[in-house]
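Support request, please re-run this one:
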Amino acid sequence: MSTAMHTRTSCRVCGSTSLDLLIDYGQMPLAGAFRAAGETGGETFPLRLWRCNRCTLMQVLDVVPPELILRSSSYASSATGALREHFAAMAPQIVGQSGAAGKLAVEFGCNDGVLMRPLIAAGAKAVGVDPGEVALQSSREQGWPLLQAYFTEATARQIASKYGKAQLITGNNVFAHADDVHSMVRGVTALLSDEGQFVFEVHYQGDLIGLVQFDTVYHEHLCYYSLRSLVELLQPYRLRIAGVKRIRTHSGSIRVTAVRDECAYPTAPRVEEMLREERSWDVPRFVNQVRLRRAALRKLVCDLKADERRVAAYGAAGRVTILLNYCELGGDCIDYVVDPSPQRVGRSVPGVGVPIVPPARFHETPPDYAIITAWNYEAEIVAEEGAFLANGGTFIIPLPEVRLRSGHRE
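Re-run finished. Output below.
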């Protein structure tokens, strides 16, 4: 495996070289590479968002070696209550829909077992595939089988030889991270039973455009899918998209059900409806809105600091790295970032060096303003931090539009 960054010159789904550059972020650190407190600098890489004119895939073509991504990541899905609830509800739905009760279900990118546990509870014979240490530790502690590897055709054949073909294959928010997405699809075709289902979730490009989510573009996320781009990806392998559903996770995703072309499972009308809707997307407007949001947030924060107001940020997910670096909001503008994660507290946001502190600091020495960098959890954060608003604090919501939220409004 190469340890050097490389830059693609063609679309990773359809191979077209007709690509439009949408946003150039400049040199950016890895979003999850939180550093020791007070450290700035560190390794940075070019970050640019492109869109394929043929299949419409949005993608980052500057590819950082996967081992560097894994080294910088300690992400555990179960740490987020909303994700635990989401996957707990998803498991019985997809096991029932696919007829996988009592049969083999394989999840690649299983992380800490947030979906594996409910799949097993729903009656599936579940096997996980994931190269990460978080998955290995979780499988040992929780007792579900794991193949610690990337999901490829070779991995799939290894599973098939040991367990047989899978009635259900699932991989959620995994396609976004792979440079070679075709290797995973070849794995699916090698492992899926004739009437089995491949059910997966991806961050939806329609929501990225509609909510101006420039902060969710980072090196760890290589692809931002439209339904059309997924059709282009699966068709060469005789896989048909039979169902699609929009869901709320990660500020807007889709759950896709794919089957073999000859499978009896019917194609839902919603698939063609969504493909028609995608033709009306206004991508140039999205690019312009990104510029406007960036300028508006930076001006607001700089004006507040000039007025000697204290400004903090709330939420240290990967989004905070991109938002603060791209908007050039460093320690001279932001006092600290508050986050409950023990893996992040005591560290700092890469690039800008803003320290990450526990909620106690926010409660003991509250700022005048706090940017909800985890703006996709605005409702939960506002409900939890009602005292901050009641005592005169104001939240800054950076996206989908820059706005203020004080205790005087609901």
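The chain is about 35% helix and 25% strand. The domain at 285-406 is CATH 3.40.50.720 (Rossmann fold).
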